[in-house]
Amino acid sequence: EKMSVANIQGIYPDAGEVPLSLKDKMVVGDWLSLTPGNYHLVIGQRLAQKQGITVGDSIRIIAAQGGVYTPFGLVPSQRRFVVTGFFAMGSEVDESVVFAHGSDLARLIRLPEGKVSGLQLFLDDAFKAPQVAESLRNKTQLTTSDWRQNYGQLFEAVGMEKRMMWLMLALIIAVAAFNTLSALIMVINDKRHDIAILQTLGLSNGRIRTVFLLQGLYNGVLGSLIGVILGLVLSCYLNDILALFGAQIFAGSDEGLPIIINVSQVIITAVAAIALTLVATLYPASQAAHVQPSEALRYD
After folding, report:
1. Does domain 7-120 have CATH number 2.40.40?
2. CA angle, residues 153, 18, 135, in degrees to nearest 5
C-alpha cells in the first residue's frame, strides 16, 4: 500500500462553511458530499494522481492525535474514509491537504462533541494575515500561525522570481535605449555633412536638437506600441501556444497557466520604455546641435 503525509482539515459544508477560495476548485464531486457520519473525504487532484486514487475508493486515515497508549506503545487513531471528490488549487496544497467533515474528523481524533483542535480564518486580503495573527496573539493569548509560516518558502520563491523578472525587464529596456543611443550617434556621424548644410541654410541648433529628439521619441513610441501589442497577444493565447508545441503545464488539468493582465503595470512599463528612450536621445541630439559647419565642410 502507498502512504502519503497530508494535513487533514475539517469543514462543515452542510452549514455553508466552505471557504470561498475552495468553492470553485472542485474538479470531481461536490463539497456537500461531506456529510456527518459517512466518513467521506475530498482530496487534491495531484495527490489522487500520485496515489492512483479514484472517486469511490476507500483509504485509511491514520492520525497520531487521538492515539491511545497501550503496553505496546502509542497506537494511532485510524479509520477508513471514502473519497467522494477531487479539488485542484494549482499549488502544492493539492498534494498536502485533504478535507473531511468536522464531526467525522473529531471522532477520528477522539475529541469531545462540539470541540475542535483549532480554527482557520480566511481573509479577503491574504497579505493582512501576519497583522491579524499578531492581533489575535495579543488579545486572546492564542497560539497562531499564518500562511507565510506554513507555505512561506513557496511564496518567497515566487516573490524572488517576480523581482528577477522585473530586473530582467529593466535590463532589456536599458539595452533597447542604448541601442537607440548608438544608432542615433551613428546617424549623426554619417549625416554630419547634411547637418552642416542645414545649419548654413539657417536651421538653428535648437531645431536640429528637436529633429533628433523627435526621431528618438518616434522610435521609442513605435517600439513600445509594437511590444505591448505583441505581448498582450502572446499573453492572451499563451496556453494555446504552449498546447500547440505540446507543452503540458499541469498534468491531468485542462486549465493551463493562470493569466492575469495588470493594465497599470503594462502602462507603467510602456511609459518607462518611452521615457528611457527619450533620455537616451538627449546626448545624440545635443551632439548633432553642436556640429560645426566649418569643420564638417572643410574639405568640400
Report:
1. yes
2. 55
